[in-house]
Hints:
Layout: E1 3-4, H1 9-13, H2 24-33, E2 35-39, E3 44-46, E4 54-60, E5 63-68, E6 74-80, E7 85-86, H3 89-92, E8 100-103, E9 107-113, H4 114-123, H5 125-151, H6 154-169, H7 184-191, H8 195-207, E10 211-214, E11 217-220, H9 223-232
Antiparallel strand pairs: 1-2, 2-9, 3-8, 4-7, 4-9, 5-6, 5-8, 10-11
Amino acid sequence: MVKKETLTVQDVVEHLDISQLLTEPQLAELKKVISVVRFKKNQPIYEEGDVPEFMLCLLRGKVKIYKEGVGGRSQIVRVLKASEHFGYRAYFANQNYVTAAAAFEASTICRIPMRAIQRWMSENIQLALYFVRQLAVDLGVSDQRTVSLTQKHIRGRLAESLLFLRDSYGLEEDGATLSIYLSREDLASLSNMTTSNAIRTLSAFASEKLIAIDGRKIKLMDEESLKRISKNG
């Protein structure tokens, strides 16, 4: 069950990049149609086959976009951090969702009806160009990830995923520990490998002092070596 979370409209609007591009009448309408919901850890946000109705913006927390594969294995195709928009591509393509989304941790998300977004775009060239750019960036990232996950060896894929998580979520105050604690299953899904291979490769990285492991916490001890492993594949 999705629970409502009390936030002021202004709090929410300040998180939205598109609010800077809207006209005054559009901004006034946004404040009327926007809604805020909260998801528990691991709770689905939408599922494959659902009909897209909203553009979503992550206000707090962490979210994964994933697709179920052969034999029940899932592949994480994207991870999101606060202020990122998602969930709108399928609407523009006139499709149901081909991926699913779930919360890595307790997350707060705002929803804007796509019908309103589409109408505003027809009236506002700057807003339309914003979504063209966003979709172009997402396509570029997807293309790069596809090449990496299909051509790199296991060590290269895992090293890339660790660096990808660093770039996406940053590090804790010690300047080394990733600010996201993934299960081994999720890390394997992000890296396109089996859980057993992820565990073995993590252990190898730890023995080589490239990382240090404390439960789900991963500390990057030698980023330069991880970069070389990722680059060389």
